[in-house]
Design goal:
Two copies of one chain form a homodimer.
Chain A (H helix, E strand, L loop, with lengths): L5 H13 L2 H8 L3 H15 L4 E3 L4 E3 L1 H27 L6 E5 L8 H9 L7 E5 L5 H6 L5 E6 L6 E9 L3 E4 L3 H4 L5 H4 L29 H9 L9 H6 L5 E4 L7 E8 L5 H23 L2
Parallel strand pairs in A: 3-4, 3-5
Antiparallel strand pairs in A: 1-2, 5-9, 6-9, 7-8
Helix pairs in contact in A: 1-2, 1-4, 5-11
The first copy, chain A, binds a DNA duplex (30 and 30 nucleotides) through α3.
DNA sequence: GCCACTCATATCGCCACGGTATCAATGGGG
DNA sequence: CCCCATTGATACCGTGGCGATATGAGTGGC
């Protein structure tokens, strides 16, 4: 048999990420020599060189890169098994829902209410997280289901789009651009949020020169917008619930709308998840119909 | 940390599948007492009861079923990491292609030739397997890419449809149905192949009463058809290459056509896989165009 | 009611894994 | 140019985890 063990994978991932046996050992809470030996033994047992070592430098080989990717996936799967069975073993297993505050289009309360009407409903645990934390939470079993804006890395996940709404640009009221009509994406280039917020637009990655700290707090973002430092592209539902005097909202030509989706692990066969997806779809459909009547 | 180990997962899966500590221990090549102790220790460490034991019976709890599913996935991921890194570490890593003979629409040679023209091409290893073995081979890292008919369990996989072709029913020439026109699926119920062959049609699962052995050999299938025992629904391309005097082919109303697809793990970022997918798509498109000109 | 079956407990022995001490190689700085 | 700091490798030792054997205990069938 293969004989590959979780401990070996953890060790390798630590070394591959640190590219330094000493620091990796520290991170693992162990001494450096047994770590060196474990990696060497791993290479021997696989018959593959994973690392190029000199006494001053450690680098990954091609095979090492392959193992790093696959080991992370495998470790996530093992961790997920652990977390899910712990949850399933509780007297009242919960549905653990990962979401990002203010990105639920204000529908979360209604969805939860609708969900509880389902006979397959179980208690819900809410997992608030920053943008980009929902998907890893599904991968490693912290969450059973997530609500998040598309697009996202859906490897190993199934998902269902719920609703699509336009986005506007948020900028300071005294910003010269606020007076203009028909803003173009190019007008706003170089002023995107550095990270965290929905900056992965068609305009691409955040500006490399930016020294602004990644900011995940809504109040901070608004402050920075008021200062004219950055602009931001919130969806309509978020704007409706967070009006501020110092901030103006303007349409931008060709700005991709925001689509909210519900996602869950493909492996999931849980009736509780299915019920939540049904409830979420239901509420979103109703909400869309309302919007059509009274926009 | 979690501390869950591969050994524990293997032990649990063995017990959960056998529902018998003695047989599971035998399958694992070990004695029964340490296995009992290991499972008990696993339950203690998770704080979850996985099995209901009496001295005469072992049964899975709900949490046990959850762990069985997730443990299989995790073990596949670990095994895949092992196999993939071993392949990646070879002097000339191969592209391992899983397929089922006669279900390549006769395009495999052209696809391989087209693939070899790509600068990203590497040596190809062919993994012939019975129906249903391609997907597990992708899951546990035996294969990098697969050609197989849809639908299939695509959890964790990406895929691309290549071409769609009609299927006919194959039956004995002296079968009364062979004289009829406009066959319906209902006419053929109860005579489907028990397993292995493409029996997962809209007509559903194989008949439960059937005592016929699962048969995966083409010659055997043809023999059984000639005997009038069963009928079968091969795609057109297979028929063209396997004409036999004793067998007649007739259209069936509403019979779902067969779609050939190429599939690969979502985790894959290998240029070799991408190149093969491109080559396969290319050849399939060309072939379809030829068919349009000279059908 | 006895026996066979099956899972649990007790005890022993080994080796795998981690720790400490030390070596060896390499690159940078005085 | 040589010395020293840095960093991975080697040597050796002790412990604890894991598996084997022997045995016990509970249960269903005949």
């Amino acid at each position: 048999m293969s004989g590959l063990e979780v401990r070996q994978l953890r060790y390798f991932v630590a070394v591959a990420e640190e590219l330094h046996f000493g620091r990796a050992a520290e991170r693992l809470g162990m001494a450096q020599p047994p770590l060196s030996r474990a990696i060497r033994e791993l290479e021997r047992q696989l018959g593959v060189q994973l690392l190029e070592r000199t006494t001053r430098q450690v680098a990954l080989t091609e095979a090492g890169r392959v193992l790093l990717r696959d080991a992370r996936i495998a470790l996530d799967a093992v961790t997920a098994a652990d977390r899910r069975v712990r949850n399933a073993g509780r007297p009242a297993p919960a549905l653990r829902l990962a979401f990002k505050p203010d990105y639920d289009a204000g529908l979360l309360p209604r969805m939860l209410a609708e969900y509880q009407r389902d006979p397959a409903a179980v208690p819900v645990e809410l997992l608030m997280g920053a943008r980009g934390e929902q998907v890893p939470a599904l991968w490693d079993g912290r969450a059973d289901v997530a609500m998040l804006p598309t697009p996202f890395d859906d490897r190993g996940l199934d998902f269902e789009p719920l609703l699509t709404e336009p986005r506007l640009v948020a900028l300071a009221v005294d910003d010269p651009l606020a007076a203009r009509d028909g803003l173009e994406p190019a007008d706003l280039a170089g002023r995107l949020l550095p990270d965290g917020a929905p900056a992965d637009d068609e305009t691409g990655a955040p500006p490399p020169g930016s020294v602004l700290p990644p900011c995940r707090d809504l109040a901070q973002i608004f402050n920075m917008i008021e200062l004219g430092t950055v602009v931001w592209f919130p969806p309509l539902s978020l704007i409706r619930r967070h009006r501020r005097p110092g901030i103006a909202y303007r349409p931008v030509r060709g700005l991709r709308p925001s689509t909210l989706a519900v996602a869950w692990p493909q492996a999931s066969r849980s009736p509780a998840v299915a019920a939540f997806v049904r409830a979420a779809t239901e509420v979103a459909a109703t909400h869309t119909a309302e919007d059509l009547v009274a926009p």
